[in-house]
Amino acid sequence: MSISAAPAQRSLNYKPGLLRNRLSRLLTILMGLFAGISVLPLVLVLIYVLLKGGRSISLSLFTQLPPPPGLEGGGIGNAILGTFVVTAIAAAIAVPVGVGGGVYLAEYAKGRGFSQFVRFGNDVLAGVPSIIAGVFIYGIIVATRLLFGQSYSAIAGGMALAVLMLPTVIKTTDEGLKLVPAELRWGALGVGASKFVTVIRITLPTAFPPIATGVVLALARAAGETAPLIFTALFSPFWPEGILAPIATMSVLIYNFAIMPYEAQNELAWAASFVLVLLILAANLFARWLGRFANR
Amino acid sequence: MTSASPQDSFTLRRRPASEKLLDIGFRQLTTALASMVALILIGILLVVLFGSFESMRRYGLAFITTSSWNPVEDEYGAFTAIYGTLVSSLLSLLIAVPLGVGTAIFITENIIPLKVRQVIGVMVELLAAIPSVVLGLWAIFVMEPFLRPAFVWLHNSLGFIPLFGTMPLGPGMAPAVLILVVMILPIITAISRDSLNQVPPELRQAAYGVGTTRWGAILNVLLPAAVSGITGGVMLALGRAMGETMAVTMIIGNSNTFSWSLLAPANTIASLLANQFGEADGSQVSSLMYAAFILMVLTLIVNIFARWLVKRLSLRY
Q1: DSSP characters for A161-220?
Q2: Rounded mean pLDDT of B212-232?
Q3: CA-CA to A72 of 20 to 30 Å: which in A25, B19, B71, B146?
């Protein structure tokens, strides 16, 4: 049996009728179906939120307080403001701490012992359920009334969200700084800059876009978080009374009003979802743009 | 001074003491900030552990195996919630893994144009950005009413199996599982996609070179090569599913009565916490802390195992 003789009449062309080719096509179609099913919820949720929530968008939605249970009208002005307040508190805590920690990991850590533990701890913290962050802040701030004798407060809510933001900020800072070419650091150190000046003036500004991307994504996630807020920031039907009082947020408002048996409250929950989803999608697209901007 | 002598140009700048101090101080500051992570992690463990002491001493391990939750009589057992946490997250994994890995294959293989693939990829990632509470709202008002006829049909035709033994009356385990699928799909898809993308193109080319079909290459070469990353992603998704709170709380029914039926209202540890922490006091807080401790331990085990798995099985090409 010579090599040239046996497959003489066998063509190498693609034969669609073969079992394996049919099977392959079938599986491809099946995966396409899976991809469709995966995208479907997003499309459905977006359509519903846009249609149901968009209907009740008006100026009063942004300027008025929610009505008492069962009554019509009103708005979610206090919750919108509250979401910004709580998220700002979270950012004010998580961004400096996270960027500082990231700088340590990228610029000073030697890759063993303590720094390895911090990296590992950061990964573990990222996996801690958000409600546990709420339990933690409840345990140390709310239950003990540590802050000026206050229990539930906006600042407690912000701290719980900061715990959730921290791992993302540290991770993105660490990875953003690692992308900065070592030559830049050598150059700065070579012309006589101190390590501090090198980090502050050269490496951090160079890594700004990826760090900002991470911070924006973390903020968007924090703004949508609910679980840690329901027993730290609690809720308030009134305008924010400072950061030491309970505060309304859009996410908690959605939760509270969704499970109320009143039509008007349910409508407000949809309206709040509309505002929240648009805000978060805008933040995500902005982060995406920032990321592309960085790659240029 | 216009002409520097050779000595001058080679003298190193003298570093003032303040600059050195600043350098050292900055280093110590960043070290302190980095250790915040460790402090918070240890803090969480301590707070939850100390908070649950009272309940631990009173119930011991019986807390895990009994399922009465009665704040009036001050009797607590978390079996229903623990069972609900495990069943809801495992069932949702069962559905989400094929869907997520399938989607990842679909958007990494050269099946459809790059633009369409990118759009699908972005859409799945945006799905991850939708707040859990909004998905819960959607589940209450849109998904569950839409699916209820299907659940009723399941009960009517398969009701003799205990899993479908109760009449679906709205919220319950089954819709909660489905909304969990929606929530963990993006994680599985994103991580599977990244792992598949990291498989060296030479492997794929070699597989095609010996004449395999597309699925021959995917099943025999690409998936085995990417299995570590995918498994890690699945474990991370499991951790997320166990800790997921809002959407589940809104749709699972929050019943502390144990039932085998997937169509009956159930509970998870996270939704137990979300529901009761706000107005809990006394020994109820301690019992909730105990439940939180169990959840914490469960998710820690899953997460650490996931990291270990990824490290252990990472690509060796």
Answers
A1: HHHHHHHHHHHHHHHHHHTS-HHHHHHHHHTT--HHHIIIIIIHHHTHHHHHHHHHHHHH
A2: 86
A3: B146
R_g of chain A computed on alpha carbons = 26
Taking CB atoms and an 8 Å cutoff, what residues of chain B touch A123? Answer: 303, 307
Residue A194 CA from chain centroid, whole number: 35
**Which residues are within 8 A (CB) of B150 and not within 5 positions of it... i.e. 6 or more apart?**
none
Residue B63 has pLDDT above 50, yes or no: yes
Are B286 and B52 a contacting pair, CB within 8 Å? yes
Asked if the C-beta of A184 comes within 8 angstroms of chain B's C-beta atoms, the answer is no
Residues 62-81 of B with CB under 8 A from A: none
Instruction: Look over chain A and give the mean of its residue pLDDT values, rounded to a whole number.
Output: 87
DSSP letters along A8-67, please? TT---S--TTSHHHHHHHHHHHHHHHHHHHHHHHHHHHHHHIIIIIHHT--HHHHHSPPP
Rounded to two decimals, what is the model's pTM?
0.88
More confident residue, B65 or B10: B65
Write out chain A residues lying below 8 Å of B248, CB-based: none
Residue A1: pLDDT above 70?
Answer: no
CB distance A136–B98 less than 8 Å? no
Pick the closest to residue B129 from A218, A91, A229 (CA basis).
A218
More confident residue, A73 or A78: A78
Contacts with B185 from chain A: Cβ below 8 Å: 38, 41
Separation of alpha carbons A290 and A212, rounded Å: 8
DSSP letters along A86-145, please?
HHHHHHHHHHHHHHHHHHIIIII--SSTHHHHHHHHHHHHHHS-HHHHHHHHIIIIITTT
CA-nearest of B218, B238, B197 to B108 is B197
- What is the rounded CA–CA span in Å between residue A185 and residue A117? 26
Q: How confident is the model at residue A2, as a pLDDT? A: 46
Window 14-43 of B: residues touching A by CB (8 A cutoff) are 15, 19-20, 22-23, 26-27, 29-38, 40-41, 43
SS3 B53: helix
Q: Assign A261 to helix, strand or coil.
A: coil
Segment A35-75, tens digit of pLDDT? 899 889 888 999 999 998 888 888 888 888 888 887 788 88
Half-sphere exposure of B121 (CA within 13 A, CB side): 20
